[in-house]
Amino acid sequence: MDKDIMIKVKDVSMRFNLGIDKGFSLKQGFVNLFDPKMRKKHKEEKKKNEFWALKDVDFSVKKGEVVGFIGSNGAGKSTLLKVVAGVMKPTKGKVESYGTICPMIELGAGFDMDLTARENIYLNGAVMGYSKNFLDEKFNEIVEFSELKDFLDVPVKNFSSGMIARLAFSVATIVEPEILIVDEILSVGDLAFQAKSEAKMLNMITGGTTVLYVSHSIESIKKLCDKVIWIEHGEIQAIGGKEVCDKYIEYVNKEA
Amino acid sequence: MKNIIYSIKKYKFLLYELVSRDFKVKYKRSVLGVLWSLLYPVLTMTVMALVFSNMFKFSMPDVNYLVYLMSGLIIFNYYSEASNLAMSSVVGNFSLINKVYIPKYIFPLSKCIFVGINFLLTLIPLYAIILLTGTGINIHHLLLPYAFLCLFLFTVGMGFILATISVFLRDMFYIYGVMITLWMYMTPIMYDFAMIPAKLQFIFKLNPLYWFIYFTRDVILYNQVPSLNVWLYCGLFAVGFLLIGIFVFKKYQDKFIYYV
């Protein structure tokens, strides 16, 4: 196989159990233990509650490619990115990735609201797997990019949501990872910061980073991505260039 | 094995940050701050001493009751606080686990370390009491780190087990609360072990904490090197529970994400 492949997703399927909230029930356990009929019924019920968020998803991404994922809400895009990032293990299939992954699935996931911005930069950086030396080195750059210099020693709980997002974006993008996973975050902060963060993303993309990008903004997908994958009901509907976006739009219009 | 070493190296800084976060959050907005780590055990000990020294006839003439009480109390308190925090650490950090890949064992482990540092601080009041009561210090005190290490490893193992169970069974938080109360009375912290009927003593000896406390008191109160079987029991309980904990946690950790 060629060396250029960075991520290989092989026949990945992901099963969720919708009834899982009921969890393990002692009563059910006892009934199952003594009554084979009930056991069978329970099994069938469990099967009915199964939900395949991804079905035999199979694709590969080459180095430097920017891949956009489109599809309706609940189509399985975010689940797919989580599987690629290693947050979830697929029920079936395999994901291979060759390179450091920086998941920006939800910004600020590692923030502690009681800590100050300064403390959170280190905490969040550590969550992303960066070292202390690296963060010391990049600290000023992070602060500068976030434009939050005057608020460094303020607890993050007093920040506006836009400020939190700016801080998180600045920490997350400080490295140049080989693989960047982005779930709908370009609409972060005010207009000026949006432009800035988009420029930064473009910069990373042209710098040779491989990017997986989920967005509902067809416009930005068209602008940024070389390759588009359309997912619906957990299955890949189409893989291709920008023309896939038009197919998707057509489908949406028909449904409506 | 290579993977484990690599991941510990990579996430060493995260571990450090998680522990220091706990400290920062714990003492934020409290006037006395870290001083509470010293004061708290002394105050609880005083309350217990006031209550129990009048209730029980303490029948060890050469032993100072305050030192006896304090040495048992700090060990039990370490276990109780660390295991409780470790138990809720996985469920409590779900928002992180759900979004970023982090080795999950880091959460229970960071709690055990955090409380462990607090434990080391509580040694200061313990030694103050040892000196003030004239119990005295001797060379054997250098053996104590063995008991503390065993206590730590045992607690980490229990933390892994409890964290795993509580992900699947939230009732565990309540069940464990009751268990720990029972456990406290089953551990000779404030009473003399000789008070327990000889027939029942073997049950008490199944308790790992009994042995860690036994080791510590042997050194502090009786100025002697604990006998070989005490060393063995401490080590076996520690390593045994650690291995069970690692096994259970490893086996179920990939399923956590569906239940939290």
State the helical fraction of chain A: 40-55%
**Total strands of chain B:** 0
Q: What number of domains of chain B? A: 1
Shape field of chain A = globular
Helix-strand category of chain B: mainly alpha
Q: Please provide the ordered H/E string of secondary-structure elements of chain A.
A: EHHEEHEEHHHEHEHEEH
* Count of individual domains of chain A: 2
Q: Outline of chain B, from the CA principal axes?
A: globular
What does this entry look like structurally?
- The complex is a heterodimer of chains A (256) and B (260).
- Chain A starts with a strand and ends with a helix.
- Chain A is 41% helix and 25% strand.
- In chain A, strand 8 (227-232) and strand 9 (235-240) form a beta hairpin.
- Chain A is globular and about 65 Å long.
- The longest helix of chain A has 16 residues, at 191-206.
- With 256 residues, chain A is α/β, with parallel strands linked by helices.
- Chain A folds into two domains: 5-100 and 178-255, P-loop containing nucleotide triphosphate hydrolases (Rossmann fold, 3-Layer(aba) Sandwich); 107-176.
- Chain A contains nine helices and nine strands.
- With 260 residues, chain B is mainly alpha-helical.
- Chain B has helices spanning 2-27, 35-55, 65-92, 94-97, 106-132, 144-168, 172-186, 201-205, 208-222, 228-252, 256-259.
- In chain B, helix 1 (2-27) crosses helix 5 (106-132), helix 6 packs antiparallel against helix 9 and helix 6 (144-168) runs parallel beside helix 10.
